[in-house]
Amino acid sequence: MPIHHFAKRLLSKSAWRAYNIYRKGLDYNAQFSRTVEILNAPRETIIAFQMESLERILQHAYHTTPYYRELIRAAHFDIYRVPPLEKQDIREQLDRLYSTAYTWKQRIQNTTGGSTGTPLTFYQDRNYWNQRNLSVYYFDQWAGWNFGEPQLVICGSLADFGGGEHRKHRFNNFWRNQYWLNGFQLTDPAMWAALDKMHQDQPQTILAYPFSLYQFAKFIFENGLTPFCKFKGIITSGEMLHPHYRALAEYVFKTKVYNRYGSREVGLIAMECAEGRMHINCRDLYLEIDSPDPYTEPGEILITQFNNYVMPFIRYRVGDVGLLSDEMCPCGNDLPILAELLGRTTATFRTRNGTLIHGSYFTEQFHDIDGVTQFQIIQESLRHCVLKVVRDEKWTETTRYYLVQSIQEALGTMVVVTVELVDEIPLPPSGKREYTISKVDSDIDDL
Description:
The chain starts with a helix and ends in a 9-residue tail after the last strand. Helix content is 36%, strand content 24%. It has twelve helices and 19 strands. An eleven-stranded mixed beta sheet has the order 4-3-5-6-7-8-9-13-12-11-10, with helices on both faces. By secondary structure, the protein is α/β, with parallel strands linked by helices.
């Protein structure tokens, strides 16, 4: 290893330690050890920890928040008697969701990216972020990440901002030993520059949005290039990881992709292990599937966050669909397993007979079809879909027929498919590409 790489890693590792002691206190090492102890514990210990954490957050919410005081029965504190918290509840009841035990100065404002509609504003506190980061550190080490080692980040970049934000971003990158490829602007010159930088700095891991990772891997593959780096792992987060994204990234970078699932509102929810199972972050939250049988019938995911005392999230409907597993993972970790993560409820299509079809079906069907550069399917109703297509010179009427037929085979032959040929499909404000959008509510009667 070149001496300047060794020195940079040593500097970054020391900076990470100083940062964590500054944020979390002198007992940071003890806190992290306790995090590891909980997340490595036997299943019965994990469940007992969760039950204690649920009791504390329910007691706190009942005694200090007007919203929950009306919903929680003091004699029982039964989580299952609390109605799910909806995004609309937060918009309409925000002032009543604050804990009176905290001052406004202790609240840290956060906002969702708005990929599924209007951005949502909510509040967390410093302890929430400290605890969230401890769990992230633990799970990211499954993918080979460690403090101070160089990392390539392919996400939305603050580097496009001017003034102080740009300087702050560059400073944070330096001490963390990260460098960024802007996932929202993957131009050929930017990817050539990132590849050169990658060869110089020899990152150990990659952290990326799935689509951005796929685009970079595709650029490398189509140009006949070889990344001269020995990667320990790739961490993906923020979007659905489609199978062809994973397959190409693992082929190009010669390492495993570890998918991480979370949300801005409640933090890291689950992460894949080396065996490919997605383990639930039971240290920070309690996960439910809103389904008659969460082990056989998919349902919407509800999250109760243990650490956000300034604004409790209890049975929060995150907007994703999932399924649990009762298996014990061969990796040896006893954390419960999220067997399937089917993505956004807005990406789950419904047929007239009630069958649920996840949008990833269409992304797999339409992957690498000649003539199609980009596409987006919008289920307007049970009877009507709109297919937007950005085409190239290989587009034919046969392609149009195939796409329409594929949609009708999945949703029903009576569904009308309107094909719109467009010049571009703009990114939403979140910067996360949406291939499939369903506007059909789960309770709609449109037969």
